[in-house]
UniProtKB/TrEMBL annotation:
Name by which UniProt lists this protein: ABC transporter substrate-binding protein
Biological source species: Novosphingobium umbonatum
Superkingdom classification of source: Bacteria
Gene3D superfamilies: Periplasmic binding protein-like II (3.40.190.10)
C-alpha cells in the first residue's frame, strides 16, 4: 500500500474517492481540497503534492518548457464553457467582441486555461488578434506579483503584471475588460459600470457547442514522475479509479432522488443536458483528441509553446 498526497478542487468527480465510497487498489489517497490559484502555484512552484489537479494551460506550458516533475493522465477533472467569464466596462466602447481589439484586458495568468480558451475563440470567431490587446495580469482580490511559472512569450504578445488587484483595475477603468472564472465584486455588487460581454452567455455557449461540439477542458490530473517510474502499474490503476469515480458521479446525477447541490431541478437539468448534448464529460486521450489538439493550436498562437506539439507529448 502506498500513500499519495492528492491536492485538488472539490467536485462530484472526486467525491467517491474523498468519502471512501470508492477505494483505489493498493493506494491510500490523502486528499486535501484547495482553491484553484493557490493549488496550481503549489504544484508548479513547490511540487507540493504526489498527485494534483492542475490547470491544463499551465501543464501545456510546463511540458513545452521541458518540465518533467509530473506526468499527466487523461483525466480531465474540470471542464467548462467560458463565454460568461468575460466582463467589460460598459463605458469602454465595447459593443461587440471585435471591439476588444486595442483594449486592455485583465487576467490572473496568461497561461490560465479559461483565458487560453477565450483568446482562441475570440481569434477564431471574431478575428480578435492576441497581439492587438494589452494583457494585464494580477490577483483578482489581492495583489499577486509573480506568474505561476516563468514564461518566454513572443515579442508581439504584450503582458504586464500589475501590483493592483484586477477587481480594482476594472472598477476604476484602468482595464477595459476582465477574464475571470470568479465574478469580480465590482460586477456582483454593482460598484462600477461593468457587464458581461455576452448578455446571454448560456445562449452563446449553447450555440458555440452546437457548432463546435466541444466542452472545453480546464484541468488535468498529474502525478509525480518519480512515483510513476517507481510503480509502473500506478498509471493504469489511477486511470481506472478516476473513471469509476466519474461514472458514480454521473450515475448520481441521473438517479439520486435528492439534489447533490443546492439546485432544485438538478436531475431535470442533467437529463436535459444528456438529451441535447449526450455524454460530454469523458476521460481518455482518444475521446478528447480533437479538443486537446485545439488547445495546442491555441497555445501555439498564444506563444505558450514555441513549436507544434502532438497530443501524446502532454501525457508522456
Amino acid at each position: 500500500m502506498i500513500t499519495l498526497n492528492f491536492g485538488c478542487l472539490f467536485s462530484d468527480r472526486i467525491e467517491a474517492l474523498l468519502t471512501g465510497r470508492l477505494k483505489v487498489e493498493g493506494v491510500h489517497l490523502a486528499i486535501s481540497c484547495h482553491e484553484a490559484q493557490g493549488l496550481f502555484r503549489q504544484v508548479l512552484q513547490q511540487q507540493s503534492f504526489d498527485m494534483a489537479e492542475l490547470s491544463m494551460g499551465s501543464h501545456i506550458a510546463a511540458v513545452a518548457a521541458g518540465r518533467r516533475d509530473y506526468v499527466a493522465l487523461p483525466v480531465f477533472l474540470s471542464r467548462s464553457f467560458r463565454h460568461s467569464n468575460l466582463y467589460i466596462r460598459s463605458d469602454a466602447g465595447i459593443n461587440r467582441p471585435q471591439d476588444l481589439a486595442s483594449k486592455r484586458i485583465g487576467l490572473v495568468d496568461f497561461q490560465q486555461t479559461a483565458a487560453l480558451w477565450l483568446r482562441g475563440l475570440l481569434a477564431d470567431d471574431y478575428g480578435v488578434a492576441r497581439e492587438s490587446i494589452d494583457w494585464v495580469t494580477g490577483g483578482l482580490l489581492k495583489p499577486v506579483l509573480t506568474d505561476r511559472m516563468a514564461m518566454d512569450l513572443p515579442e508581439g504578445i504584450r503582458v504586464a503584471r500589475s501590483p493592483e488587484t484586477l477587481d480594482s483595475l476594472l472598477a476604476s477603468g484602468a482595464i477595459d475588460a476582465l477574464i475571470s472564472p470568479t465574478a469580480p465584486p465590482c460586477f456582483t455588487q454593482g460598484l462600477a459600470p461593468v457587464t458581461r460581454l455576452w448578455p446571454d452567455p448560456r445562449a452563446e455557449e449553447a450555440a458555440w457547442y452546437a457548432r463546435e461540439q466541444v466542452l472545453p477542458i480546464m484541468h488535468v490530473l498529474v502525478v509525480k514522475r518519480a512515483l510513476i517510474e517507481a510503480h509502473p502499474d500506478l498509471r493504469g490503476t489511477l486511470q481506472v479509479a478516476f473513471e469509476q469515480a466519474l461514472a458514480l458521479a454521473l450515475d448520481d446525477l441521473a438517479q439520486r432522488d435528492f439534489p447533490k447541490v443546492a439546485i432544485a431541478w438538478l436531475q431535470q437539468q442533467a437529463a436535459e443536458q444528456q438529451a441535447t448534448m449526450g455524454q460530454i464529460w469523458t476521460y481518455g486521450l482518444e475521446p478528447n483528441r480533437a479538443v486537446l489538439e485545439r488547445m495546442l493550436r491555441y497555445a501555439r498562437a498564444d506563444g505558450l509553446i514555441a513549436r507544434d506539439m502532438a497530443v501524446e507529448e502532454l501525457f508522456a
